[in-house]
Specification:
Heat Shock Protein 90, alpha+beta, Beta-Lactamase, 3 domains, five-stranded mixed β-sheet, 364 residues, 48% helix
Length: 364
């Protein structure tokens, strides 16, 4: 008798202090016993629940599934982590995760329910964000494809028109034209050539952004030597000095892009040198332990750029910062586009009359 009382007291303590709802339900689905946690979880006093049918509290959208699960439990199949929504006394619904089994001996269903509302709300928010992200990705993919199609159509059609203009001007017989008309034709030819050049620049930029070029293992000194050989005439004419400091032997980057960016940077250094000094160029490469990537720095002693004034335009297409007739504003745009197309980045430091320094971070 004493042992039975101890067992009863133990069960009563569990029913009183458990944070989860513990209950028994008869075959008709009515609550026979309920722990104190029902008030914290669903807002009801125990007396407001006992004798009432479980189905009275289930969300209408979950009632069919809950009834089917009750039939399974009565047939001897325990439920594990079965989730449904039950109505709180204030009218809202709480997500409960049930573990239940049927006791043939006592003719009762024993159930334990845990409030998982916060977990379900977080899961729903994650699901909503993922769905929104998926829609955004789908929309961006569609818009990107449309933009690609538009770019191809635009460059193709513009190129055709530019070629037609050039062809028509070539048909003109200059001997039959007056002096004024000849001047107009020459201007038209010049405009046609610039238009063709612009279209070719745009087409190249589009190709860089669209196509995927595999990286090469580039031997830095050999690749640099090839570029310097191509530019040797200009370098020698201006008595330019190029100093290399390569602490690494190779980098992973498309060779065609490396030659292009180095050619553009060196050409700019020669073009925008200071009148009183011969060009001095320092090119270094090393492994950055903090960033875990290879880095190339390029520095010259040229006329520099006022970054306070032009900093947000440096890498823009057709952005020029001098009055030189041979400034086109394409080189730095291509350099940045090529670097970023391979997952890298580029920064610039410069002051007027103090030269310019570019730092290129290659993709790790």
């Amino acid at each position: 008798m004493i042992e039975e009382l101890k067992d009863f007291s133990y069960i009563q303590n569990i029913m009183a202090y458990s944070l989860d709802m513990i209950c028994t339900v008869n075959q008709e689905g009515c609550f026979v016993s309920m722990s104190n946690a029902v008030e914290d979880i669903l807002g009801y006093k125990i007396g407001e629940v006992l004798g009432r049918n479980f189905a009275d509290f289930v969300h209408p959208d979950d009632s069919e599934l809950a009834a089917a699960k009750a039939e399974e439990i009565l047939s001897g199949i325990p439920a594990r982590n079965f989730v449904n929504r039950c109505r709180h006394k204030n009218g809202t619904y709480v997500y409960l995760s049930w573990s239940s089994f049927w006791s043939e001996e006592n003719d009762l269903i024993y159930g334990i329910a845990r409030d998982v509302t916060e977990i379900k709300i977080r899961e729903q928010k994650i699901h909503d964000r993922e769905a929104a992200l998926s829609r955004s990705v789908s929309l961006l993919t569609q818009q990107n494809q449309q933009l690609k199609s538009f770019n191809h159509i635009l460059t193709h059609n513009l190129r055709n028109h530019a070629n037609n203009i050039a062809m028509l001007t070539s048909f003109l017989d200059r001997e039959t034209l007056g002096a004024g008309n000849i001047e107009l034709v020459l201007k038209l030819e010049k405009v046609s050539q610039k238009l063709t050049g612009t279209i070719n620049d745009l087409s190249e930029a589009i190709k860089i952004r669209e196509r995927v070029i595999e990286s090469d293992r580039i031997p830095l000194e050999a690749a640099t030597a090839e570029v310097l050989k191509i530019l040797a005439m200009d370098l020698n004419y201006l008595k330019a000095e190029v100093v290399l400091a390569y602490d690494i032997a190779e980098i992973n980057f498309p060779k065609i892009y490396f030659e292009s960016l180095l050619t553009n940077l060196i050409s700019n250094s020669l073009k925008y040198k200071r009148a009183t000094e011969r060009p001095l160029i320092h090119i270094a490469a090393f492994y950055d332990e903090d960033r875990h990537c290879n880095v190339l720095t390029y520095e010259d002693n040229g006329i520099g750029i006022d970054l306070d004034r032009y900093g947000d335009q440096i890498f823009g297409l057709y952005k020029t910062f001098t009055h030189r007739q041979d400034s086109h504003g394409v080189g730095l745009f291509l350099v940045k586009t090529q670097v970023e197309s391979q997952g890298g980045s580029i920064t610039i430091e410069s002051r007027p009359d103090e030269g310019t320094r570019f730092t290129i971070f290659f993709k790790p």
